[in-house]
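Researcher: Here's a chain I'd like modeled. Treat it as a single chain, no partners, no ligands.
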Amino acid sequence: VQLQASGGGFRQPGESLKLSCAASGLSLDVYDIVWYRQAPGKEREGISCIGLKEDYTFYADSVKGRFTVSRDNAKETLILQMNSLKQEDTAVYYCNVRDVLGREFWGGGTLVTVSS
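Model: Modeled as a single isolated chain. Structure tokens:
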């Protein structure tokens, strides 16, 4: 099983960035998806999730209205669209998948830096 995160980079405040997480070795359609981030000197926090049937989504208050989570099970890809970026969005972002039996897998982090 592998989750390959990509799309991180440098942006100025107000700009957008799209993160992707490519899954292999598993059937993505049986997993819920969670995006986490860890800012420098802070604990890792869950910021968004989407159910395996896309029947629910969740956003932390810090990203609500600016970030959009989506999934393409056919392409085994997870997406986090980030708009109106702020300096406080600077962090390493991780994708995580978990099924109803509690099995979970983590992707490697991708660094997002927002600075003027």
